[in-house]
Amino acid sequence: MERNVEKMLKRVSVVFLSIGTVLMVIMILQTPKTCISPEAPLKPHTHFPRSTCDSSPRQHLPLPKKNARIWSSGAWKSRLYSFSTYFLRFRDLGFIQNHTKALCLSAGAGHALMALSQIGLSDVTAVELVDSIPLVKRADPHNLPFFDGVFDFAFTAHLAEALFPWQFVEEMERTVRRGGFCVVAVDECGGDDVRDIARLFHNSKVVDVANVTLEGSKKTSILFKVQDSPT
């Protein structure tokens, strides 16, 4: 009796194994129903892979068209307007002019550079750890690839995010000429915090502090005038 049962179970196992093998072969050879035929007309919503089995390459926009799309967006224009309004104050106070040679550190996608250009500056350089062609060049703000005193004006809104703030500030001061200006925009703060930030600037003195709104956030803007380096 037991032998008969054992033989029957073996036969059943062989049958199920055979059925499973056949089904697996069919699944491998048969085109999934989720795939769209290569002859099917291209639709606007199928520019990217149309299904998990679509191996056709994605369509990439050329960089100029991609930038044009980004720069024409409402979000970009809003941030650009915010930076332009912010920098206009320094122009009105006489701290920057059209001939001012400016540097933007930790410049992100380049809003600050574009804003300075829009208000009339013709020589603006922006750097970030990751470049954003054509506005922002790749460079480490802690180790700038520029000679001493080549800029008239340096700006950053990301001092708080610097890995080594003292070195970041040291590079700002080094690359700005004597009599030039360094500007930092930080989260809105009071006197003690402003003094702590000012201590990082060994070769500069505070000439202007103002609470402003930048990119929709409340900030404190601190303007330093670069002095003689200690001998």
TrEMBL record:
Coiled coil segments of this chain: none
Keyword Calcium attributed: no
Source domain of life: Eukaryota
Keywords: Membrane, Transmembrane, Transmembrane helix
Entry-linked InterPro entries: Methyltransf_11, SAM-dependent_MTases_sf
Domain Methyltransferase type: 104-184
Gene3D superfamilies assigned: Vaccinia Virus protein VP39 (3.40.50.150)
Pfam family, one: Methyltransf_11
GO MF term (any one): S-adenosylmethionine-dependent methyltransferase activity
Transmembrane segments: 12-29
Protein name in UniProt: Methyltransferase type 11 domain-containing protein
Organism field: Arabidopsis thaliana
